[in-house]
């Protein structure tokens, strides 16, 4: 039997391309370091893409959507039906990520991994339903092992489609009412922190709502928080869309596509995936710092330096889509700026 996709080899970044990109940055007509993170991003992309002219176009955005059985515990400000309704909105072009994808001229695909209210079949939605949502993680494991493998494989297929389309940057988004409970529980298990430190309002719970959500996560962690192995955490506390994101990110690294990581839920998926495959870490760029309070701890654990902090907390891949033009700028500056020699500009004084 062949190994599952998430066990395939991941190519290391090219050190010669990194060294040449670093050397070129010093020659460009600017004080060394003055373009800050735009410099390091261009150098990272050059090494990842094994290219002296890094480029993020075409960009692929894949939004993974699924429902969560833990909604039975009353942990979200919104009803579960919104997940299916938003899938239709993504496809119809009216959601925030639909607008941003158009603006970026990025390919957008929406992948339905299973909702309680069947999402209307629409063009542009890939049906990859595993079940009408996960089981209630406060009372039983969120998913079975075959369901977890199916979700990981669904993510890998999205990475394969991105590679076939020639994508040079992958943005993974998510939609799932209740998924901040799942992501917070996963983060607690993976980071060995208490729910009080990593739980927040999600779509907009008040203080009482957050206190109840913390109690639900405590219950879930008591039931199955002891096994901190990443597949066990994904299976017992995760969501289908979170597992698919983990599979997609590993699949992108396997195929040589850099990933721009979105907000809290996507970062938790990335953390689980990095625990599974530490070499994935090189392939992740971080878009923004979400308002969800657990995000900072997850970013710190990933040693991430997010590009933006806009107080966003939408999900869908929206923070990454907003940050993507910064990567375009970083590449354009790296590729097109004149050198001191070309432009006849004097370098720094001795
Ligand atoms: O990306 C984030 O940082 C983020 C923070 C808070 C909420 N969300 C979105 O809100 C939904 C989950 O919120 P909740 O309260 O239902 O758990 C889900 O569809 C996410 O895309 C996303
Ligand atoms: C309307 C709505 C849109 C979303 N997009 C991502 N999560 C969401 C949650 C809600 C409630």
Automatic annotation (TrEMBL):
A Pfam family per the record: DBI_PRT
Species the sequence originates in: Alcanivorax hongdengensis A-11-3
Catalytic activity: 5,6-dimethylbenzimidazole + nicotinate beta-D-ribonucleotide = alpha-ribazole 5'-phosphate + nicotinate + H(+)
Alphabetical UniProt keywords: Cobalamin biosynthesis, Glycosyltransferase, Transferase
Pathway(s) the chain acts in: Nucleoside biosynthesis; alpha-ribazole biosynthesis; alpha-ribazole from 5,6-dimethylbenzimidazole: step 1/2
SUPFAM superfamilies named in the record: Nicotinate mononucleotide:5,6-dimethylbenzimidazole phosphoribosyltransferase (CobT)
Active site: 316
InterPro entries: Nict_dMeBzImd_PRibTrfase, Nict_dMeBzImd_PRibTrfase_bact, Nict_dMeBzImd_PRibTrfase_N, Nict_dMeBzImd_PRibTrfase_sf
Protein name: Nicotinate-nucleotide--dimethylbenzimidazole phosphoribosyltransferase
One GO term (biological process): cobalamin biosynthetic process
PANTHER family tied to this protein: NICOTINATE-NUCLEOTIDE--DIMETHYLBENZIMIDAZOLE PHOSPHORIBOSYLTRANSFERASE (PTHR43463:SF1)
GO terms assigned for molecular function: nicotinate-nucleotide-dimethylbenzimidazole phosphoribosyltransferase activity
Protein task: Catalyzes the synthesis of alpha-ribazole-5'-phosphate from nicotinate mononucleotide (NAMN) and 5,6-dimethylbenzimidazole (DMB).
EC assignment: 2.4.2.21
Glycosyltransferase is among the record's keywords: yes
Enzyme class: transferase
Family the UniProt entry places it in: Belongs to the CobT family.
